[in-house]
Amino acid sequence: MAIADFDSAKIAIYKEGEAKPLKVLKNLHENPVRFILHNHKYQFTISIDEKGFLEIWDCNYDFPERKLKFEMMCDTDYIELMDHVPLAACLSQAGTMLAVTTADMKIRLFEILTGKLIYTHEDEMIEKIEEAREHNSSHLSTFKK
Questions:
Q1: The CATH number of the domain where 116 resides is what?
Q2: What does the alpha-carbon distance between residue 35 and residue 40 come to, in Å, rounded to a whole number?
Q3: Which residue range is the domain that position 89 belongs to?
Q4: Which tens digits make up the pLDDT trace of 74-109?
Q5: What pTM value is reported for the model?
Q6: DSSP line for 52-94
Q7: What is the number of structural domains in the chain?
Q8: Residue 145 domain-assigned (yes or no)
């Protein structure tokens, strides 16, 4: 089990039933980790910190390069997350996709092994509320910026 420290970048790894961590990962992230997702299909873990930096690591706490179809994160679309604050993250049931919701109210869907962004959903309702505010629409006057 992996547990992130809310105030630091540390991730503690525990064995079931043990109170003391087996290992503490101190240098995987530079910022506090907000999401830890274990991919059972490919047997690796994805962690995302509060700045949107994503790491993928295996049971040896190493980058699982033999399982992935890229060698460096800069070769993927995962770097797009670094421009946005992540609010939620989840894996598809099949373990092949990663969905991340960010503060810009977009849901981004990535193919895990390639790191390619395959779909972005943007909530059009936010745009409509902003337009209505700009036009002083009376029925939306209760919405505040």
A1: 2.130.10.10
A2: 16
A3: 2-140
A4: 899 999 999 888 999 999 999 999 999 999 889 999
A5: 0.80
A6: --EEEE-TTSS--TTTSS-SSGGGSGGGGGGGS-EEEEEE-TT
A7: 1
A8: no
